[in-house]
Specification:
Largest sheet: none
Radius of gyration: 16 Å
Shape: elongated
Order of helices and strands: HHHH
Number of helices: 4
Distance between the termini: 33 Å
Number of domains: 1
């Protein structure tokens, strides 16, 4: 089992824990807007955790495994920056943290681009 399978599984588990925490504990403690921000973080966290798992499964089958590794790394960075900033924003209300979120979004996009490129066969 490669390390990205473990990381993806742990990230997905954490997403479920944070989602349950939001649904059962935070529902009465955050405003509706803050809870929406938090839920968006949880959704993207899970989507990209599954993405990491898929990358781990595909890694050895792709023409460019190095790009696949970068895709997984970028998804991890995206989860930390995108979802992490939304979690902190939901709790703190500090709007400047919203400036970090797009950096995570760019990491997600770059990760998906890396997968597309990793799957491309070189023409020779």
């Amino acid at each position: 089992m490669n390390k990205y399978t473990k990381i993806g599984a742990l990230a997905a588990m954490l997403s479920v824990v944070l989602g349950a925490f939001g649904a059962h504990i935070l529902e009465d403690r955050l405003t509706a807007d803050a809870l929406d921000v938090y839920d968006t973080g949880v959704q993207y966290h899970m989507f990209h955790s599954v993405g990491i798992l898929l990358i781990a499964l595909l890694m050895d089958r792709l023409p460019s495994p190095k790009l696949a590794i970068w895709a997984a790394r970028l998804h991890i960075i995206g989860i930390i920056l995108f979802s992490g900033s939304l979690y902190v924003l939901a709790f703190s209300g500090v709007k400047i943290l919203g400036a970090i979120t797009p950096l995570g979004g760019v990491a997600f996009i770059a990760g998906w681009i890396c997968i597309a490129l990793a799957a491309r066969k070189d023409k020779k």
